[in-house]
Structures
1.
Amino acid sequence: MHIAVVGAAGMIGRKLVARLVSDGSLGGHPLTRLSLVDVAEPERPQAFAGRVDSSAVDISQAGNATALIAARPDVIFHLAAIVSGEAELDFEKGYGINLEGTRSLFEAIRLAHLKDGYRPCVVFTSSIAVFGAPFPDVIPDDFNLTPLTSYGTQKAVGELLLADYTRRGFLDGIGIRLPTICVRPGKPNKAASGFFSGIVREPLAGQVAILPVADTVRHWHASPRSAVGFLIHAASIDLQLLGSRRSLTMPGVSVTVGEQIEALRRVAGERAVALIRREPDELVMKIVQGWPQAFEPKRASELGFVADRSFDDIIRVHIEDEMGGKL
Amino acid sequence: MHIAVVGAAGMIGRKLVARLVSDGSLGGHPLTRLSLVDVAEPERPQAFAGRVDSSAVDISQAGNATALIAARPDVIFHLAAIVSGEAELDFEKGYGINLEGTRSLFEAIRLAHLKDGYRPCVVFTSSIAVFGAPFPDVIPDDFNLTPLTSYGTQKAVGELLLADYTRRGFLDGIGIRLPTICVRPGKPNKAASGFFSGIVREPLAGQVAILPVADTVRHWHASPRSAVGFLIHAASIDLQLLGSRRSLTMPGVSVTVGEQIEALRRVAGERAVALIRREPDELVMKIVQGWPQAFEPKRASELGFVADRSFDDIIRVHIEDEMGGKL
């Protein structure tokens, strides 16, 4: 099986490639070839005996998606995206990559389909940002698309295109709406959502973390490991089961910041918790107010998508996958 | 006030221009200038003393939208679209006009905004085709976007872009989801929905009409006159009242085909009804099964949008506006 990963140099992309190589197969089909693309050249996995093509390309530029599709990958994971904060700051860049890039990829697939009937499985990473307040406390699968950011708008457009290109028979698509990924590894960043990971990651590393919101703020989380599991599962199931509604809200863990902190106490003790410094930030509080708190992802659960069992587990995943299992 | 109508040569476009000229103002502002564009050159209204620019342009082609926006119209009615049936038959043409055309128009407005703060009112004609089965019997305002045609997909994308460009402050947008327009004047066409108008229009003109579905089929209708009324009203109200959800399902008349026929009997007598010939068509029946039957357009009603009162009225509008008031 030939698998392409668009956005392979990102955090989820790298973990996905590592998992694919470690599994050696997908949905029972042996993995023989990888095509990895991103705006920066993705690393080649060491432990893989098959063919790897890795290249630094922007798929929103003419011809690049066509070149990727020329090799007719069986499965395409489309993870490439300008993240929420940057898409909000740089309107043109966000629309360029998140909307034009996605259209460009789907168009390259359609033109290949018209040529020789090519019809790959496409796993599109969407986001809970396709939803915007006002919300019910628990958001159902059929909540309407009401994004309140340019990023969410671009992801919602991607979902609509994915469904139409699938309905037309050009590709076999599934969109998965990822929860906020927590604990995000790496350095603190300035994303408004950064503190959700920061209040766990920094204390675990013996550093101070700033908490800008109240302990009562509730949000929807999944570990990077779960996110990769969703992607793999999406490419392994019979997509006909989705019917015409091709995008699914993924399961996650709904916890308050207070519950996150209690989980940190249970897993890493009082000393870690003591490193959280409360510095209320009106702006962040206002932004976070418009975010979803919990979902009831019935369809995804029925289709076998499985999230972390608890926020304690989310913390343990971080310790295992990012800290070599040691505190 | 300078008003631009994109798609001014179409059925609704022509009626809108006639109504604007007849009113002589919009929302209390005297009409001083009209910019009319369509792929075929729109007719110039005779009775208008102000400036009229009329041109045959395809706004999806580079530069054309920019040229239209260079004159800084205060209000832009964006009606240009490849209709449902054609967008389904010609994928590239549908996406070209309905998606690229809309983006191109919004982008021209954004670039003008960045230059001098220009921020026009944009009335975008969407459609109930943004919704797809399975439906509840009566569809609420917040039903999710689930189009089952390329046309519906393109309109849903337009709605999402409209909301984001509005949120960013580039324009002040409102999307109105038109019901099926009935009675559509002119010749019978091959659209699957054509019979809804045909079974009224043809008998009123003394001609035979084919009815391909059962009398129990229910659908959502508005007269061309009501559609024009929605457009005018949309450009006249305070759009801040919409909040972030910028597209509204318009009110309409929910009737079964049987009720349409009873209305025809009341308005035009037995002789008209006798011209309807029942010729069941499995394909049309199957298509129509996936269509919405009724909506509860609370938001639009609260904002003062008013539909025809009954299907009898819809027939009378056709007789008045298309037949000089005479049977």
2.
Amino acid sequence: MMRDPHIVSSFDKDLESVQAMVMRMGGLVEKALLEAVEALEMRDEALAERVRAGDAAIDALEEQIQTECARILALRSPTATDLRTVLTVMRLAAALERSGDYAKNLAKRSLVLMHMAPVNGAPGAIRRMARAVVALLSDALDAYIARDPAKAAEVRLRDAEVDQMYAALFRQFLTYMLEDPRTITPCMHLHFIAKNIERVGDHATAIAEQVIYLVEGAVPETARPKVDSVPMAEG
Amino acid sequence: MMRDPHIVSSFDKDLESVQAMVMRMGGLVEKALLEAVEALEMRDEALAERVRAGDAAIDALEEQIQTECARILALRSPTATDLRTVLTVMRLAAALERSGDYAKNLAKRSLVLMHMAPVNGAPGAIRRMARAVVALLSDALDAYIARDPAKAAEVRLRDAEVDQMYAALFRQFLTYMLEDPRTITPCMHLHFIAKNIERVGDHATAIAEQVIYLVEGAVPETARPKVDSVPMAEG
């Protein structure tokens, strides 16, 4: 489809508005993740409660995006790249909604952990992992807006580092639990927190793959880090 | 949109074909889940490997469904209920794909667990939970095909039972670990298996909610069992 760059179609205007909503949603999810790990580290109950309550706004935004995309499909009947773009936006919103759920879950677990003895060093390691994942998510969304498959490919590769951070934490928690059985309950919560952050990384990777698919029309051939990777070495 | 029931439109034929693919996908996912827990219980390495390898067929089917739905959207430009139906099919396929990932993950963890001392009673409890979830998934897909919101509402309620089974297992694993630290590693894997089965139940619930939305045009008001429920009592 040829387009005069000086003519902005109704479709383009619709798309721009819904993309702005996705970016706002991305910002909220990133903030929720960072604040949830901060609440965990600082044992800040009020902050954890705010993150928990804030998930409703993320969910509402997702519903608004999905409704708006359905309206665009019905009203504009886009084809080819335009159709693929709308479907991509819908998948991005779904991935962000799930990531928001993980942030909320993290906040809930941090509230539980505040009433237990602290596990040395764990919150710091969790924070580093969360920051790496937030950077991934942010770069994946930037790659979408810029339609930049090279940047998206880089996000895919960096997700492997997050998986390594998770595997290292898994080993660390096992060691703590074996050394001191009183740490079993907090370590299980910390382990789930680490796993949830790793899953947000998987969603960032999925967004990056959507960008590559959108621009290049094909999913990358090389296997990506697995969604449900089990650190087999620890088994 | 009024329709003469004796005239089958091109859209209806397309929809029927893609719905048949979703049902086939559902069947594969249910089989994968049941075989994965059987492999865990019987310590059947070959079966676990088959489940693991079989996930590729589920993923391929999902991609085929998403591509076909995009083709229907582009070619038929459906509106109103027809559009909502195609979008529902896309969400169903995505939910089944993730459920298949959980079955694969379960198979991988069962392979790890085969090389550890058995945890008394755990595989049987896991099997019961998996059977309940497979029944939920199957009923949710039936509710979709029959466009039966009452059946879908019942699936939503029954998911709470699965959540209770998960909470009971969580308590059981904690007890084992506290009593005998040598069970910590297998119990962590078993705990993840239970959590993954619970998540398949959440996907069945999400499918049921899609059916209610499709037929009644509104999401149910009453809060559904939470996706990322943390058994706080155990915290």
